[in-house]
Amino acid sequence: MRYITTVMNRVILASFFLASVARCYNYDEVLRLSLMFYEAQRSGHLPANNRIPWRSDSATSDKGQNGEDLSGGYYDAGDFVKFGFTMASTTTILAWGYLSYKDAYEEVNEWENALGSIRWAAEYFIKCHVSDYEFYGQVGDFSLDQGFWGRPEDMNMSRPSYKIDKNRPGSDLAGETSAALSAVSIVFTKIDANFSASCLSHAKQLYLFATQYRGLYHDAIKGAAQYYESTDYGDELTWAAAWLYKATKESQYLEDAEYMYMKYRLKERPNEFYYNKKVAGVQALLAELTNQSEYTEAIQNFCDYNLYVQKKTPKGLLYIEKSGTLCHAANIVFLCLQAADIGIMSTQYREFAKEQIHYILGDGGQSFVVGFGKNYPLQPHHAASSCMDRPAPCDWEAYRSTKPNPQVLYGALVSGPDENDNYKDLREEYIYNEVTLDYNAGFQSAVAGLKHLELQADRNKGLLNTDNGVLFNGNWTDPSAATSNSTDA
Questions:
Q1: Spatial contact of 412 and 382, defined as CB atoms under 8 Å apart
Q2: Catalytic positions, please?
Q3: What are phi and psi of 135, to 5 degrees?
Q4: What range defines the domain where residue 115 resides?
Q5: Stretch (H or E) spanning 137
Q6: CA 384 to chain CA mean position, Å
Q7: Burial classification of residue 271, based on how many CB atoms lie within 10 Å of its CB (0-12 exposed, 13-18 middle, 19 or more buried)
Q8: Where does the UniProt annotation place the signal sequence (predicted)?
Q9: What domain count does the chain have?
Q10: What is the pTM of this model?
């Protein structure tokens, strides 16, 4: 029976691969380009292997209120503020994808660049954690930043820094950063033990900070409320505890996660998964860690709702809201790929993920990834890429230009279309053409998941023809397709 099950699983993967042949996209190229987008967003002293020729050192004098070195990290979007909350959320999702789909990055020779992307963020978070109960969550003032259009290398405005501490806590920010550092620590366990241990140490202390001093970070960092408001912290606390358990296997963290899961009523089905709403991610992670029905059923309810009930555009894109349309869809299918990996509705969720990602890559007639495909966005809302090569000046004339951005912001995922698949490739239309760190995270990780499945299908396709004489049976059908509640694993 075990042998038959193994063969059936290989057939399912081979079938997934064959079904993808009709419309093929180069996942290798998408992964490479997405990582280049993150490199284009780097702040501080750039490394010697910088692959973005129009970027150089910037904001190298970013400092804390007592002169602490806060250089490094990532600019959030087309502007030059460093928002810790979304940077941490981005890092957690990227690291989760690296843990799940390492083979995808290795196959496309991007594993070292992938490691560099999360290390860049983690080293910045460690700098920001200046004492046990003190963490800098933002550098730059958005109101000042919005008065400048140009290159980060040419910035001359004041860049104040903002922090949380015992008197002005931020459980959501500290909790999300703890989760990010826990995830990074796992990735680096066998690669750089000292760095991994440092990440884990800071993750533990930030978790203590988050649980002992409760509050919403935007009450301490006032400017953040306008752009990245946090509506609760129970999901981040549970998320942080679950990631610490995954990193340490210390039972206390799992007990904390399960207690808070009930306390904050996280078993209810959410409608989305993004920087402000981690509930579905908590459900998926606890399902993976425990295999308990309470969590597996919760994440299945979430994915089933989005697959079968949630609103979609006429061309089939999952539609949550206009801001970050594509990000929402990609984040959801990344979680559903995680559910599929532990045997929940594997065939259906993987096909769902492929449909959504392929829409983003061009199935609807438009690529939404800058530099990828034949019809990609030419005017992303991004100041630095709108500038000509130095020493040409760059100011608001570049913003108003009707020409394509002179610098191609390779790999950036734009916000995307409206509920009727309408899209405007105009720089000033940020609701369609904004780019941000968190937009790319779930998308990149979902693409890595599809590449991972492609690699598995390739391997299993060969095994089907050689393993003890068993041949691929083209008439075999997946029995899970007969019922919406069955599993493949």
A1: yes
A2: 425, 434
A3: -145, 130
A4: 27-457
A5: strand 134-139
A6: 22
A7: middle
A8: 1-24
A9: 1
A10: 0.91
